[in-house]
Amino acid sequence: MTKTFTLKGLSCPSCAEKIENAIKKSEGVLSVSLNFVSATLKLEIQQHYSNDIYGTISQIVHKYEPKVSVFEKQSHDDAKRHPDHHHTDKVSKSKAILLISGTAIFFAGMLFEYAFNFIASEFIALGLFAVSYLLTGTKVLLRMVRNIIKGQIFDENFLMGIATLGAIAIGEYSGAAAIMVFYMVGEFFQDMAVAKSKKNIAELMDIRPDYANLQLNGELSKVAPQTVNIGDIIVVKPGEKIPLDGVVISGEAMLNMSALTGESLPRKAGVSDLVLSGSVNQNGVLTIEVTKSFGESTVSKIIDLVENAASRKAKVETFITKFARYYTPVVMALALLIGIIRANIHKAGNVFFGFCNGHVR
């Protein structure tokens, strides 16, 4: 059976990958697809594990992202009840303030280090670099410590933390601040792109109609579009969305189809014309004979395509995902190896020159 969950507040792409990989290893799970952009998790599980799966998913998600809320998603309407893009926008604004402040202070430190030449300039520059580093890098360092405690060592937070702490250890304070500032710039633009994608998806959800006016025995009743069958007669009043694809059997109206086709001008629809779900009736009353079920309607297919787009990973994306998994440990091993070799070479050089000096004497 298939289960779908909404992960409200998911904002970390690498955490999303870790969540997906951890769930794949869970008992009873046949397949997993985590769409980071729409924060939707789709599972194919064995029937007898269905009752316990919510607890398993929540435990795994909170292990990597404690602040993320998990909701079982019964339909597309659930996404409207738990919108996520407002949370992402708020996070981006706070990050923007920290990033702008940290970047400005960093460049001020660069001025004091290289442009000004007085006694205290070096100490002022050092203080500015420290403030810039703490503003932009505190969250990275905290995530690094938290992940190490949980046994999740090799990730981008660990790489940035070790790189900047190593720079500080050798006295490259401006380098440490620069690494953290530019890393946070990249994270900020990533957050902006994700927030925009989530907002577009949330707006697209709004074109999905909430009800249909079903005509039965001369009377109209509001019903869920899912319950309407092919051949049923529905009525669409001015200002309402067409809930299902069908053919107009009476009436005439202008339809706003911009959400479906991008056309700015409304289209006229009359008797015998095919009309698509998601279109907005601007005037007139249309009586429509349904030709497609709700699941096969145009608006449902569009939403499904958009929601599932991120889960259909390209070959390049799959390669990058696998590459990133081994990148950090390999880089750390190479850095350690180079450090050991350099230390031994330096030690051997001292021994050699010491021997030569003693021999000359």
Structure, described:
- There is one protein chain.
- 55% of the residues lie in helices and 16% in strands.
- By secondary structure, it is of the alpha+beta class.
- The chain folds into 4 domains: 2-81, Alpha-Beta Plaits; 83-206, no CATH class; 212-294, Distorted Sandwich (Calcium-transporting ATPase, cytoplasmic transduction domain A), CATH 2.70.150.10; 313-361.
- Strands 6-5-7-13-8-11 form a 6-stranded antiparallel sheet, with no helix packed on it. Strands 2-3-1-4 form a 4-stranded antiparallel sheet, sandwiched between helices.
- Mean pLDDT is 82; it is low at 76-89.
Q: State Rg.
A: 29 Å
Distance between the termini: 85 Å
Number of helices: 10
Low-confidence stretches: 76-89
Instruction: Report the β-strand fraction as a percent range.
Output: 15-25%
Counting structural domains, the number is 4
Identify the strand order in the major beta sheet: 6-5-7-13-8-11
Helix amount: 40-55%
User: N-to-C SSE series?
Assistant: EHEEHEHHHHHEEEEEHEEEEHH
Mean pLDDT: 82
Largest sheet: 6 strands, antiparallel
**Global shape:** elongated
Give me the secondary-structure category. Answer: alpha+beta
What is the strand tally? 13
Quick recap:
The protein contains 10 helices and 13 strands.
